[in-house]
Amino acid sequence: MQWPHQVPGLAYGGDYNPEQWPQATREEDARLMREAGVNLVSVGIFSWAMLEPREGEYDWSWLDQTMDRLHAHQVQVALATATASPPPWLTHKHPEILPQTAEGTTLWPGSRQAYSVSSRVFRDYALRMTQAVAERYAGHSALALWHVDNEIGCHNSHDFSDDAARAFRRWLEKRYGSVEELNRAWGTAFWSQRYSSFEQILPPRAAPMFVNPTQQLDFHRYSSDELLSYFLEIKATLREITPDVPVTTNLMCTTRSKNMDYFAWAPEMDVIATDHYTIADDPLRHIELSFSADLTRGVAAGEPWMLMEHSTSAVNWQLRNRSKSPAEMIRDSLAHVARGADAVMFFQWRQAQAGAEKYHSAMVPHAGTDSEVWRTTVRLGEMLQQLAPVRGSRVSSPVALLFDYQAWWAAELDSHPVNELSYPDEVMRWYRALWKAGVTVDVVHPGTVLSGYRAVVVPCLYMVTDHDAAAIHAVAEQGASVLVSYFSGIVDVDDQVRLGGYPGAFTQLLGVRSEEFWPLQRGEECRLDDGSVARCWSEKTQVPDSGEGEAAQVVTSYAEGPLTGSPAVTRRTVGRGAGWYVGTQLDDAATSSLMEKLLLEAGISAELPSAPRGVEVVRRRGASSTGSEVTFLFVLNHTEAEVEVEASGRELLSDRAVTGQLTLAAGEVAVVREHA
Ligand code: GAL
Fold it and tell me: Rounded to the nearest whole angstrom, what is the distance from the C-alpha of residue 414 to the centroid of ligand 1?
């Protein structure tokens, strides 16, 4: 990981768009940034049309002044390549750079990100802009970090244009080598789909019926790779001009951003940065936030990362946007820090007066500085300064939850047994159970080295490689408790079914064999023999008593319906560990009680057993100046009551000693540097 240059302690700031404001406001901004303790801002993200008003004519004046002014106020800059939205003169001159939907609709300019990432014309213009910005500001003392484009693929990840079709074909030729091999992988003996040349292949455009599933899956893979190749071209240009300045782009590591395989992107980034927004109508939005932060840490391979954007209060793009109380704004920020963020940044510095984001909150709201949002912005800045010693420390966990973008794409393809299955919903069901048990979780890719984890949770890993399935089996043999949920291990990387019974790749590990899926209808419930309730999914499972090693034991069976008496949940002893299979969708209560059994068996207890329900506890571990281990205990009270937990050390936000008992008011956060 490379940290933005000259940014001391934790980074604090947000997107800054001075080009939208008059001079007097810009002067005030710099002063206010100092007041709030801001030390890093992202500048120039959507400023292409302002920097290059006509082709080849540049106007650097406002950006020159901004860089100098920010430097004079000790604020460093994550400088954008300004490529996130092509200027009108460019799309007017080259309308062929616009992306197209599967139906052939052109996505016109007038909004943002209206470009096809596969258009060579667009890329050349974007590289020229990147080069111009990099040459202009190379060596500027305010330049801390390069911010490539913005949320690459947020609105244009799947482009079905002719340029995209050509790029898709090139990608397929590289993957398969020959059209025969592609025919095999795609199973084109079906529905007269056999190709005799790559030239005949198209993106999965709107068609009369289901498009070939492997074609759809490969289009997902290609699209993610194509966006990454755009990032890499820009990065190469930046590297050449400023070899020492780290390069990043803001990812969207959340349960809602499906289209980029960030585990594949991560090794190409100097520091991992992400954006996160809570969802107003989710009463457990703080748990989704925790998951997203843990996923970001997984993408960052455990290293500290940057929260590049979140919101001080309401956003403007949900059905009904929710404002945040000051306590919620602080909890949201510090929950990210607890889970490994070393930067807390917002969209955006000053709330816009015009444009589509004028009702999106910011650090300086419409109301000005005589406002609760501003006072909280200043308070948060102070808190982050008090937390400076946390920087560089890490979070570790005994539990891995496997998360895979490619399995997500495959699991949610059409023409499946249940066509409204949500991969993130299934992942969150298990994550919530772990969160409620007070256990910190590493959200990692299935290809991660798993040895060392005492429990491994594998929700709905529909597609898995032989290699990863073997590694999951091996970690159970070594002593971990492995839990696999339904619709896992079903297909290989070509989305072809593993024959012989479900769950294909995991039948040996789990000691079960399902002959047939038995989906439940909407609203239908099925009681299990322990009184719990199953929904959505069931399957006709047997526990064969012969085979290698011990037979699986039935934990719970269906107590009603056509599968009465067949196993719903099983457990098998595997080497020094165990393999649990959950062949149905349990409700939250049953998921939690099963998780408790698994944690007990694996010898895993809550991070802080004295913490009451609804209190989030995470530890970051680092080294003190003398090299000894130092731990930071983050306690976030999401409840509406005062709570007491056991803790000893120095509470950093209040700079007070804590001896045995920590009292935390409703909604508040404490960070205790613990005694060794
Ligand atoms: C992000 C984007 C920002 C801003 C923000 C609003 O997706 O990067 O530019 O639009 O959302 O929530």
Answer: 30
The domain segmentation of the chain, as residue ranges, is 11-87+117-157+223-387, 399-602, 615-674
Tokens of 319: 């059905």
Strand-strand pairing, 533-535 and 525-527: antiparallel
CA 481 to each of CA 451, 508, 607: distance values in angstroms, whole numbers, following the listed order: 12, 15, 18
Which amino acid belongs to residue 181? E
The pLDDT mean for the chain works out to 97
Q: Would you put residue 673 in left (φ > 0), alpha (ψ -120 to 50) or beta?
A: beta
CA dist 39 and 623 (Å) reads 24
Distance (Å) from CA 142 to ligand 1 centroid: 24
Q: How far is CA 417 from CA 408, 430, 564, in A?
A: 15, 22, 20
Res. 546 pLDDT band, cuts 50 70 90: low
SS3 percent helix, strand, coil of the chain, rounded to 5, is 35, 20, 45
Three-state DSSP at 647 gives: strand
100-127 average pLDDT score: 98
Indicate which residues carry an active-site annotation.
151, 309
In percent, how much of the chain has pLDDT > 90? Answer: 98
The domain 11-87+117-157+223-387 is classified under which CATH number: 3.40.50.150, 3.30.200.20, 3.20.20.80, 3.20.20.210?
3.20.20.80
Is any atom of ligand 1 closer than 6 Å to the C-beta of 171? Answer: no
Instruction: Round to whole Å and give the CA distance between 309 and 275.
Output: 4
CATH number of 615-674: 2.60.40.1180
Is pTM beyond 0.85? Reply is yes
Give the type of residue at 581: Y
Write the class of the CATH domain 399-602: alpha beta
Reported as a single tens digit per residue, the pLDDT across 168-203 is 999 999 999 999 999 999 999 999 999 999 999 999
Judged against a pLDDT cut of 70, whether residue 676 lies above it is answered with no
Query: Is the C-beta atom of 412 inside 6 A of ligand 1?
Result: no
Per-residue pLDDT of 288-338, as tens digits, reads 999 999 999 999 999 999 999 999 999 999 999 999 999 999 999 999 999
CA 276–ligand 1 middle distance (angstroms): 9
